[in-house]
Amino acid sequence: xxxITLINLNMLFVRYGEQVERELHVPLGPLYLVGALExxxxxxxxxxxxxxxxxxxxxxxxxxxxxxxxxxxxxxxxMANLLPFTVLAAEAIRRRFPNRRIVLGGVGSKAVEQRLLExxxxxxxxxxxxxxxxxxxxxAALLRGQDLSAVRGISFLGGDRVVxxxxxxRILDLDGIRWPAFERVNLGRYAGYGMITSRGCxxxxxxxxxxxxxxxxxxxxxxxxxxxxxxxLHRQAGVDLFLFQDxxxxxxxxxxxxxxxxxxxxxxxxxxKAFGRVNLTDLExxxxxxxxxxxxxxxGIESGSDEILARIKKGFSTAEVLDVVSQAxxxxxxxxxxxxxxxxxxxxxxxxQTVFQMVAFRMILDFARPRDQLPAAS
Length: 378
Prior knowledge:
The protein is built from 11 helices and 17 strands. By secondary structure, the protein is α/β, with parallel strands linked by helices. It folds into 2 domains: 4-164, Rossmann fold (3-Layer(aba) Sandwich); 193-377, Aldolase class I (TIM Barrel). A 7-stranded mixed β-sheet has the order 4-1-5-6-7-8-9, with helices on both faces. Strands 10-13-14-15-16-17 form a 6-stranded parallel β-sheet. Strands 2-3 form a two-stranded antiparallel sheet. Helix 7 runs parallel beside helix 8 (283-291), helix 8 (283-291) packs parallel to helix 10 and helix 10 packs parallel to helix 11 (348-368).
């Protein structure tokens, strides 16, 4: 009997009428947690709900069939977009298995712990921030029936009130953390292979739910550690395209250049994608990235209006966006630019400025190269 059933509820599943887009991505966060729990001596029953059979993953009966007979503690990991389904799934677990303890984790529950615990009493506890140290302590306390007030980094329902224990200190030595427990999944089933090269972002963008998870403190892995993990996945599963999923890969020019040199020295010959930041990226850096195998750079731009950029505390201007993204289009095979519209304070004129900027980048792309040499862009 396992000590905990840990379920990954993060998934790419989009339905357009009768058309469904579905793609499996290696569940990095939960697999980091599996490794930490196993190192602490616990037996983990890991389930990746992305791999569940059936056409409708939001069918609660299908979810319960996938769950089977869970361990005494059930952990659910989700992003913000899957939080409503996760709450319903937790309720279904409690109805069928009233004696199981249910814990939430991941970015989805960040900043709404109070309301979740007030409104949904079938959730026993919520982990905040990194789980490698918190999860083993919390699991031990739950299995032994101990008071949860000594476990840092969690929120829970204590009697008739919600209790928020003190935050846990950030893990700053990322090289010292065990890699995700890749051996617990069939890597060959997945289409997307992400990696984490850093944790945290110091920027205070007002719309972001991820940076607050790390308390706006950034920790960075060494280039050698990153390349070693890439080598492992390349040898074990033939992975030749990596997505660096962290929002602060471009944390500084020197670090990026050191990584590019380390990857070139490795001789792996793999490709990779990353998220950039307009005010931290220059042409020398971009050329080094391309030379080491980067085939796609992604920018979170958010708006074509300087007023909106200032209000959401993005940290750069539309003039900087035009300069850097134009250079990127000339440099990378593919450039992605992400925008947000529908801010409560956004005017129609500001929305039109965003649309104009998007169209302008498409025109730059069209005129930058001959038609048969155009890179993809979105």
